[in-house]
Amino acid sequence: MPSVLVTESTPIPTLVDERSLAQRLAPSRGVFERVRALGNEREVSSEQLDVVEEVLLRSDVGVLTTNAVLEELRTNGAPEGVAAAVRSTMLNSLRADRTTSTMAEAGRVPVWLFVGVNGVGKTTTIGKLAQRHHDQGRSVLLAAGDTFRAAAADQLEQWATRTGSDIVRANEGADPGSVVHDAIGRASARGVDIVLADTAGRRANSTNLLDELSKVRRVADRAPGQVVETLLVLDATTGQNALSQAREFLGAAGVTGIVLTKLDGTARGGIVIAIERELEIPVKFVGVGEGVDDLIVFSPAEFVDSLLGA
Ligand SMILES: Nc1nc2c(ncn2[C@@H]2O[C@H](COP(=O)(O)OP(=O)(O)OP(=O)(O)O)[C@@H](O)[C@H]2O)c(=O)[nH]1
Ligand SMILES: [Mg+2]
User: Fold this and answer.
1) CA of 201, closest atom in ligand 1
2) Could you give the residue ranges of the DSSP H alpha helices within 77-116?
3) Which pLDDT belongs to residue 15?
4) Residue 117 DSSP label
5) Count of H helices and E strands in the chain?
6) For ligand 1, is residue 176 a contact (CB within 6 Å)?
7) Residue 192's Cα: distance from chain center in Å?
8) Is 7 within the bounds of a domain?
């Protein structure tokens, strides 16, 4: 059994945000205002096409989707309004299967592994998801695989306390693979339903972060563990940088889905579409605030409506 260090920690305050998704995404919605204001024309003027192009590019939707929207408007016009035409073309580019798995083979413990560079919101996302799993009746164990600094495990422990989850942590500098290994052993012995494993976003020495993640992943995927989701966490406020970061992680980590955080803090919310289309990995959750409830299962219709709806 691992040695579990238990420390007193201040609980994370409960922030309840009653605002609608459109209100939370107000900065991104603001960018689309000029498109919402365009009328319904059988033929869309070149001035209107310019507005659409400028708005889509400003919102970081990406060139591919922008061109698809312009093509649609040139070919079919906008009998139901430009906003409606843009809405449906954007929706068409978000058709990925975004189901998540919480089931492992018989006798094995399902593991969700979280990867991404530092500061993107991995630990916060784990806390929010721990709550979500609890609400769905699952017991949760958090694995503090970020051993880069002691504060990382402290932060995860606050979320464990807050969400009533078990936690396995080790001292700063410990081998992340062995923390995850111990966590899975404990979860298996106790019949825990799911393990959520945190990882570091940086390394103290020259050892390659991606090599370390591959190693952690191998350990986590060995019986009695089974990695059923590897979620790459990206910060929406970093725009196109998030895309280039993602490309580095994809190969090494076997990513099954993306969590896009801080969508509430950017006017470039269209990055969701660029990320999914260019990486061909589904966006499974989006973060829209710092509170425990501020993580939503990504729903294309709800998202596009919050930008373009009345
Ligand atoms: N506004 C907003 N803030 C968020 C969201 N998700 C995370 N944050 C904040 O982003 C900051 C970094 O989050 P962490 O969860 O510590 O990030 P991390 O990836 O674990 O970082 P490292 O442990 O340094 O690798 C914290 O202040 C979080 O509260 C979100 O969806 N919206
Ligand atoms: Mg962290």
Assistant:
1) 25
2) 82-92
3) 59
4) S
5) 13, 8
6) no
7) 24
8) no
Structure-block tokens of residue 238: 């970093």
How far, in Å, CA of 88 to CA of 8, rounded? 51
What does the pLDDT read at residue 205? 59
In the block, residue with structure tokens 């969400």? 163
Provide the number of structural domains found in the chain.
2
Task: Please tell me whether residues 81 and 126 are part of one structural domain.
Answer: no
CA count, 13 A, side-chain hemisphere, 82 = 25
Per-residue pLDDT tens for 196-211?
A: 999 999 876 556 888 9
Which CATH number characterizes residue 41's domain?
A: 1.20.120
Question: How far, in Å, is the centroid of ligand 1 from the Cα of 38?
Answer: 37
- 124, 159, 290, 292: which to mutate for ligand 1, most atoms within 8 A of CB? 124
> Is any atom of ligand 1 closer than 6 Å to the C-beta of 276?
no
- Asked whether residue 23 carries a pLDDT value surpassing 80, the answer given is yes
Q: Which domain holds residue 242?
A: 109-308
Ligand 1 nearest-atom number relative to CA 146 = 23
Are residues 206 and 255 located together in one domain of the fold?
A: yes
User: What sign for the dihedral angle of Cα 235, 264, 114, 103?
Assistant: negative
60-100 tens-digit pLDDT: 999 999 999 999 999 999 989 999 999 999 999 999 999 99
Task: Among the bound ligands, name the one nearest to the CA of residue 27.
Answer: 1
Residues 81 and 119 in one domain: no
Same domain, 295 and 167: yes
Tell me how many degrees the CA angle 297-299-300 measures, rounded to the nearest 5.
150
The predicted pLDDT at position 16 comes to: 66
Residues 228 and 268 in one domain: yes
The verdict on the CB of residue 122 being under 6 Å from ligand 1 is yes
Ligand 1 atom 22: the closest Cα is on which residue?
Answer: 118
Neighbours of ion ligand 2 (CB under 5 A): 122-123, 152
